[in-house]
Amino acid sequence: MALTIATNVISLIAQENLRVNDDFQSVTIQRLTSGYRINSSGDDAAGLAIANKFRADISELTQGVRNANDGLSTLQILDGGLNNISKTMDRLKTLAAQSASSTFIGNRTTLNDEYQTLLTEINRQAANIGLGSGDTLAGRFNTNIQVYIGGGSAASNSRVGVDLSGNSNLVNATALGLTGTGVAGSTVPVTLSAADYRAGLYLDQSSSQVYRFATTTGTTSVTVVGTVAGLTGNDIVTQLNAGLSGTGITVSLSSANGNLQVSSSSSFAVAVDAKTGAGTQIQAAIADAAALINTGKYNQTGGLVTAAGGGASQVLTFTPSGGAATVVTLASGDSVDVIFIEIV
């Protein structure tokens, strides 16, 4: 009996074409719904490798943008804090200028209370923005801040740095040189002479020496008169303080070295005339041009005070807006303390 195998070749071809079309349809729908041309390595192996590299770069740069925005926000916070500190320092300068004027008739202690409170506020602001000191968080941004952006050929080219490290980048009161400052007035004594007055005798019954103290209200002259036995340091202090009664100026001997020193919370200048008579002078004369001034009150630099000039007298005219002119005449050789008193 013969066997016969019936083969429907046309049907097989049709089924294969149907499968191919179905696969193509599936790939097409997958591409449409995913939005990607390559959805598997079978679609394009080489293209998939390139696409994966691009996708990784995009992820890195996307996070880099977030990092940059975070860094920018941090710098904006720092800038805001620095702006507040700058405004606070403007107020400190205003208080210092107000207290330095001899025309101020209020209570300097009140000014100084506000001044010290503002110093505390500067420290608080500096700590809050991470450029202060005192604890770990207070100085958290006092470092070299590195923000990773990505996309660079090397790690060093993928970062943006802002160096805020070191004490020079701190903005608290200490770093700004404000610690220990105030506007309450100076109580630091002015030393008249480096001699030790706890021993020795000065002047005698036929000699004397004149001390002149210039203040904003005028000049007070005190003549120290010698005695037969001569004056001790305490005798000198007693006579000077008696003559300075009511001026707010006090003379004393330093307990550390016996120097003759002058103290006051208000501005003053001291000049000393040469002694008269044969007795031992208390100290060398101090001319007006070299008058000693309690400069600590104004945070100025101490030293010699020069005269206005050796020529003719000078006339200064001050005309305020909408007001009458004020004329100040300075005589030849007037010292700075005298000029200051005249102008005020």
Characteristics:
344 residues, alpha+beta, f41 fragment of flagellin, N-terminal domain, 4-stranded antiparallel sheet, 3-stranded antiparallel sheet, 11 strands
Short description:
The chain has 344 residues and is α+β, with helices and mostly antiparallel strands. It contains five helices and eleven strands, in the order αααβββββαββββββα.
- Could you estimate the helical fraction of the residues in percent? 25-40%
CATH architecture of the domain at 46-169: Up-down Bundle
Question: Which regions contain 5 or more consecutive residues with pLDDT less than 50?
Answer: 296-310
Number of helices: 5
Spatial strand arrangement across the major sheet: 5-4-8-9
- Write the element-wise H/E pattern from the N-terminal end onward: HHHEEEEEHEEEEEEH
CATH class of the domain at 46-169: Mainly Alpha
Dominant shape = rod-shaped
Structure commentary:
The protein has helices spanning 9-34, 45-100, 108-128, 233-243, 336-343, and strands at residues 144-148, 159-163, 190-193, 208-215, 218-225, 250-253, 260-263, 269-272, 292-293, 314-318, 326-330. Among the domains are: 46-169, f41 fragment of flagellin, N-terminal domain (Up-down Bundle); 190-304, no CATH class. 19% of the residues are buried. It has a 4-stranded antiparallel beta sheet with strand order 5-4-8-9. Strands 3-7-6 form a 3-stranded antiparallel beta sheet. It has a two-stranded antiparallel ribbon with strand order 1-2. It contains 5 helices and 11 strands; from the N terminus they run H-H-H-E-E-E-E-E-H-E-E-E-E-E-E-H.
